[in-house]
Design brief:
alpha/beta; single chain; two-stranded antiparallel ribbon; globular
């Protein structure tokens, strides 16, 4: 009788585990299916406020011709305290480049992702100081996630080159020149290989789809030595899941410092579906599907207090990676050219 009771308990536990796995898989399938069309958030209008007239103005589209050389997209969620330091450093650098090269033009787009603190007030001070032509604040209303905030900024940017960077200033802004120089070198090479009869005067770096990934991979050995064992375990586990989801090619997918040509931005951000932490992995996946050239370049990076990554973030990453794998592999997520 005891053996039969034990077998019955084991059978019940196995049945419950199977039901849980099937239930989770069903939820993933349902959510992936629900996100099969991403037109609603891609086509939703982005509005910025003109500090002079206080009128709401509709943003331009990334599908329009470029009006600036460089767009910097800064996602911000409750960044009242960290944002000023990052913006001061960024604006000082950009003003210096303008002084050195009168043809250099830029815009900084701050995307307020539903902040509940004074982020909007802080950002608006920079809009007033540097004019709405150079600094723009887009309000998403409610929190959507970092991926959605960056997508919104990219889709309504005016630059030939589009840079995403975090609001904490963890990467020095002048490191953008490393990514910029790499993109120019690769673009010129591909342009010359593509059509040797075309004159250099028709060359525009914005027309060649390239993505440059800022990377902290060179700091990994030091980080492994100083982190707790469980954080290293989680990091290695996440890297393995990323490798299985998007494949090899980029060692550090999660660094928040990436530069895109306008052509690459159009293709990638009109297709991307993940809204939070794992949109970076989807970018790598889409680059491979579009055969977009990827470059990984080391950047200077430092830990800034106030990180929003926690255990819940890691669970959300795994959830999004599962959605991405199911969505693309089943064909539910169709890629638009």
């Amino acid at each position: 009788m005891e053996i039969l009771s034990l077998l019955t308990m084991v059978e019940i536990m196995v049945a419950l585990i199977v039901i849980l796995i099937l239930g989770l898989f069903s939820v993933i399938i349902f959510e992936a299916y629900r996100r099969r069309h991403n037109h609603s958030h891609v086509e939703a209008p982005a509005i910025f406020e003109d500090p002079n007239s206080l009128k709401q103005v509709r943003c331009p589209s990334v599908f329009d011709p470029a009006e600036k050389y460089l767009s910097l997209i800064v996602p911000a969620f409750n960044e009242e305290h960290r944002l000023p330091g990052a913006l001061d450093e960024t604006m000082n650098y950009l003003q210096q480049r303008v002084a050195q090269d009168k043809s250099f033009s830029y815009e900084v787009m701050i995307i307020d992702d539903g902040s509940a603190d004074g982020t909007k007030r802080v950002a608006f001070e920079y809009v007033k100081k540097y004019t709405v032509d150079n600094v723009r604040l887009i309000l998403l209303g409610r929190n959507h996630g970092k991926g959605e905030a960056i997508r919104k900024g990219m889709l309504h940017s005016r630059g030939e080159l589009l840079l995403m960077l975090d609001a904490d200033g963890a990467t020095k802004v002048n490191d953008l020149e490393k990514l910029e120089n790499q993109i120019h070198a690769v673009a010129k090479k591909e342009f010359q290989l593509g059509d040797s009869a075309t004159s250099d005067s028709s060359f525009r770096v914005s027309d060649v789809p390239i993505v440059a990934f800022g990377s902290r991979a060179h700091l990994e050995e030091k980080a492994l030595a100083t982190r707790k064992w469980y954080r290293n375990f989680l990091m290695k586990g996440f890297h393995l899941v990323v490798l299985l989801s998007a494949g090899p090619g980029i060692r550090d997918t999660q660094c928040g410092f990436k530069m895109f040509t306008r052509a690459a931005g159009r293709k990638l951000f009109s297709n991307i579906r993940l809204k939070r932490w794992c949109f970076d992995v989807e970018l790598v996946f889409l680059c491979k599907r579009f055969d977009i050239r990827m470059i990984e370049t080391s950047v200077n990076w430092s830990e800034i207090p106030g990180s929003k990554v926690n255990l819940l973030s890691i669970l959300n990453m795994l959830w999004e990676l599962a959605l991405m794998s199911v969505g693309y592999r089943t064909g539910m997520w169709r890629i638009r050219n």
